[in-house]
Amino acid sequence: xxxxxxxxxxxxxxxxxxxxxxxxxxxxxxxxxxxxxxxxxxxxxxxxxxxxxxxxxxxxxxxxxxxxxxxxxxxxxxxxxxxxxxxxxxxxxxxxxxxxxxxxxxxxxxxxxxxxxxxxxxxxxxxxxxxxxxxxxxxxxxxxxxxxxxxxxxxxxxxxxxxxxxxxxxxxxxxxxxxxxxxxxxxxxxxxxxxxxxxxxxxxxxxxxxxxxxxxxxxxxxxxxxxxxxxxxxxxxxxxxxxxxxxxxxxxxxxxxxxxx
Length: 261
Description:
This protein is α+β, with helices and mostly antiparallel strands. Helices cover 51% and strands 15% of the residues. The chain is built from nine helices and seven strands; from the N terminus they run αααααβαβαββαβββα. It has helices at residues 10-32, 36-55, 59-79, 81-96, 110-128, 144-147, 159-165, 205-216, 244-254, and strands spanning 133-137, 151-156, 176-180, 183-189, 220-224, 231-235, 238-242. A hairpin with a 6-residue loop joins strand 5 and strand 6 (231-235). The model is unreliable at 99-107 (pLDDT under 50).
């Protein structure tokens, strides 16, 4: 009996790692949309299709599975077109934020420090009065589509103006304030709400909106809760509460949308 020759090389290792990365990123993408069970169902179907077509070599059943795979791939693209679009948008925003010839230097720019102080002061005062607020500091992306959902502004970053925007019952208080390139460009903007099922129950709609944008872009979102006055920061797909004194350090380290080009 002739034994099957099996060889495993460096190329095979790279191939396995790439597939593992693709599966992991796909799982993360579906988990954020609340469809993690769909991922496991698709994975189980692919495993069965592989066994039928390549291991047991059942021609008729394999042909049927091939048809389902081809149609299913198109169906998934249609169903998750928004998530796929935002996934590639996030990748593109990462590349666009690489300023090779004009690197961003927040430590040496006094304007950046002043703008951070203005935002921190506004958040601290709104937290003390339990004034709800949602502030977005754009990263490498322009967030034009998000800004177009609100009222356009062209104002310098000012603590008093930020507080006035989010003052209760004012026309612009309900929504997000977008800050990009050292300017407040839009207010009362609508953000995508996160569908992550693991979000703590005590987080409100502002927190879910902040996390929803942080999941899909490289923006940094600040939330002031009107329930308890706590300050939270959402970035890189995660959200956490920060102390008032810690907020300045967090914004200084990210400096997203602070420095004017």
